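Protocol step 4 of 6: record predicted structures for both targets in the notebook before any analysis. Target 1:
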Amino acid sequence: MQKRILALLMAAAMTMSMAACGSTEAPAEKPAETPATTTPAAPATPAAPAETPAAPAVERDTFTMAISYMPDNLKPDFASDDYTTIVRPIYDVLFAESAEGLEFYLADKFEMAADGVTYTLHIRDDANWSDGVPVTVDDILFTDAYNLAKNGRSSYSTVSGQPVTFNKIDSKTLEIVLPVPYNYYATTLSRMPIFPAHAFDNDPQKLVDDTSYYNDPAMVTSGAYTVKEINSDSIVFEARDDYYRGTPSVKTIVAKVVGSGAKEIAFENGEIDYMRITTVDALDKYSAQSDKYNIFSVSESRLNYLQINPYGPSQLNDEQREALFYAINGDEVIMGAYGSTELAQNPNSLLTPDMTLYNPETVDYVYDLEKAKEMAKSSGLEGMTLTYIYNADRANMEECAVVLQQQLAQIGVNLQIEGMDSSSFFPRFFAVLYNSGQENTWDLGTNGWDSMRGNTLNQSYSYMNQAKNAWGLTPAAGELALAVNTCPDLEEAKKLADEAVNTALAQHYIYPLTYTNYVMVAQKYVDGLDCSAIVPEFIDWLGISVNG
């Protein structure tokens, strides 16, 4: 049975998200008055008992969220999901990539010329830092200079090993000239954390030498909030009255450390205002209490996938890899690991539906257990023991491992599954890239590509155009991936993307497992958590309310 894409749910979630963000109900018109008329007095009747006055509405202005740890400082950075969630209230990006295109914040224009190499970036005229100083092109140039001074390189000023030219047109306009066409440059800029040049006298070395500035609540911010307090286990953010995009209705955000095992208790006790749901039991539990809680869902734009390690101890050949993939029932993985298509869908591609290049007609792997058994026997796969690793810090990865273990047992393959935390998993899974020496310690592993939005191949590009031949794909896949990201014509890029994805899938190294949704439960008085479908949460705080 061919794996099916369940995109309707995601489209419906997006439609609800847009409706929640943009629609308001007009007040009913006051009925027209009619001339008074004289009528006989009605007989007196006993007065009805006075009704008990309704409890006054609670005026709230604080939103409390759980964070997993206290950071060392609050520098602008979007390197990890956990840290990004912490600093979202205080730092804006230039723009973000969404399923519909670019979602603008500090910038209001980013356009590519017909030559495919010249871009014009314009910063909003009213974009300003929390101390009133305008955000300017100098801040972008300072950020690039800081990265060069700190790391000796910068992805903003280098493409394909060649320099990018920055031409300052005026304080708000920057012309960017790439050495070669490179569509991924938009993604690069969308992840650029902007530093305030004026706070460091436009000297990047001051920031390199001393980061104590970002431990002081007086630091300047570009987002909707400033830092009010930094405590041992919490951070308090305060809404800006001069935020260039408007004034948030949530006046105070409290980000407090809550252990992962204690979030549900804290939420049900009212200590935090929302949490993520990753199991069907939790979804059913809170959905059944609609009088107390609201449920929000957005596409995570994430592809979780199964990787066969070309350097693993078993050195699986193509026939053995193909047998493994025939044995995987994708629909069963979804229901066994997630229990509901509201939490995850069965994918058909290495790209996600939130990407412009995604093709819903891409032909995915077919589940055929009898063929898998036959190939497992003829290829010598039957009877083998394979080591399978997964990141235990990631939701539902253990459940996926157990389902796959059961499915592959049906063709005589014994999976020894090993879960580990992120700090142990990544040096092992990316051993070739990390030079950790662990590349021959596992055969199969699961990981995820997140933030798969926009009009490029995004994270799948680095796999197809693989560094150090890390993932076993032929050079043809990499050549096609590079062609996609250097093609200025969108329709041509779509055709090349189809060819690149099909070339990669045909080699039986990467199996698309799940498209995940980011589902949240919130207290009944919280609204708007799906107002901007960008994960990690929350990129647009203006849409969030705590007054029901």
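Target 2:
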Amino acid sequence: MRRSVRKNIISIVMIIVLTVCLFSDVVFRPGEAYGYTEKTGVVDVDADSYLNVRNGVGTSGTSVIQKLKDGTVVTIIDEAKASDGALWYKIVYQGVTGYAISTFITNIQDKIDYTEDADFEAYLNEQGFPESYKDSLRALHTKYPKWVFVADHLDYKWETALVNQSVTGRSLITKNAISSWKSLETNSYNWDTGTWYTFDGGAWCAASKELVAYYMDPRNFLNDTYIWMFEQLSYQSSFHTKENLEQILKGTFMAAGTNLVKNDETGVDENYADILMIAAAKSGVNPYHLASSIIIELGSKTPSRIISGTVAGYEGLYNYYNWGAYAHDGRGAIENGLIYAGKTDAASLRPWNTRYKAIIGGAIKNGTGYINVGQDTLYYKKFDYAGTPYTHQYMTHIKAHESEAKSTSKAYSDAVKTGSAIVFKIPVYKEMPETPAIKPTGDGSPNNCLSSLTVNDYSLTPTFSKFTTEYTLIVDKSVASVEVNASAIISSTKVTGTGSYELKDGSNTIKVVATSENGSARTYTITIVRQDIGSGGDNGESTTPGGSTDVNPPSSGNEGSTEKPTEPETPAFSMSTSLNINSNNTVTGIKPGATVSDISSTVTVTGGSFDILGADEKVKTDGKIVTGDVIAGKDLTGNYVSMYTVVIYGDVNGDGDITIKDLLTLRKYLLGTAKLDTAYLLAGNVNKDSNNVTIKDILVLRKQLLGSMNIEQK
């Protein structure tokens, strides 16, 4: 009886619970904590990486159940701390629930509804922010009302700045990035091999103009994670406090009470926060930036050996900001960084043989080299507009200012962010597009060039070249059809338009299309004219009144003769010049600064003519002759039958003159940071004592520039 009553009570309770669930917004999930407000998050990892979603909190004893790409939107339903103290989010994506570390999920916040703020709206207008900036700034102002946004109106048009920031070598991206992130410009991509040239030890490629545009457009980074690339980095004593700095250093190897640094001036051991405040005052650099820079460069928990003072051969040297620390000359980054630290430079307190001097001196170098000359944000340290614009970059990695901004955001506590009047200096260009630049996403080979294009055994005009897309061909009326063949440089490129074609009288147009893996197409057009080549008539048939056809009508003086008059012989093609024609099909003996007119007067052609072609394979009619130009002889039918590439010794960069630029180009080649095509490599062999460019050629070129010798062009 008692058991029956108990069962009835349980049944009644279950009915009540189910009723509550049916008629309320509460959804009970086993094992979940209640009261957590769901949030929206966005996965933020590198394009070639994934965020692991695990079946539990932390990496120990858990397994990966899902991998999410950059930009994936997830719902956060809970959060928990792992055993190491790291914050993990419980997320839901496409019905799968798991845990992911919070470090790689951004935009974690409930939607904030902006309430009209007349004063802030007036301020935005006063600053001159374009409309496309304002929505993002309104959202930031709502969350951080103390923040100050300054519009820095640059005297540069957007497109002009973009072109200059996209110059090969100025902005780099990892070589394993997707194809649309890598440049196809000259010296960036080798169309003959379908590969990208690499820089800085072979790990980097030139960034595409589209990718540069995305990372250069300030509007793509006006959120609470990346706004820090616009933080003003100059020291402001009224704002930058030791207390806030200690919050940034908390949990790192520089936290208060964990490690001390001897103050060389007082002899007293002090906390890192005290030393960094001294560094800020002496250098004029924001101490929060100094702290985040050290964390980014060296690590937060176990710092790089570059500040250990115990590296063999470099004992007692320290380099807190990784100045000069990159691999080159057969040495690793740490060794080169310590070599840099050991040099003498009174202005930056080198040699950095104490921790105090390394922290203070490195900060001074940061200030004098960048921040105090106008490159006073992470953005401007990457995209330089101070002094000689575009040339003075702290970093060539196109994403560097983004990653440093993200690290800075993590370094600042919520208390620092919400309680401080932080100043953000945001660039505004002239004639900006109405909408922000979009990050490119395409992948696959971009190579849509042909390696060959033929029509039977005929010669096309002009001679085939992968970048030339317009060709002509004249065939006799007796030719009823032709066979078009083509091959692509890259096997994955799809070629259409080849095969047999029936020809009609007159003009026939044939299009061969090469489509690359990434979908870009290049169309090669062949115009074939079918006519009676031996006739002078309009339709290819000349008839006499008697109805017979005369290919060569008799001329006056031999009327009635049945013999054809002797045809004049077509002179064979030949070309002579006072210049040197070499066995490797190059032409030398041209003085720097010589013009097209100068060279034309030295060339004599029989049975044809000649053109001078530039690097773009177009005919040059004026201007200077430069290394890489081609003197191309053509016969009476217009076909090129001889081609000689111009080599001007010393003109290594192909501008026709011998200047310091050529010396720098040759130096980069010898250091392995630049490639030279054959003609330019030959131009660099100014010493002419071997087939290779060596340091001796650098010395000869230097003497030429100093005026102590003239390079012999013969």
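Step 5 preliminary note on target 2. Residues 1-34, 535-567 have pLDDT under 50 and may be disordered. The domain at 450-531 is CATH 2.60.40 (Immunoglobulin-like).
Proceed to step 6 after PI sign-off.
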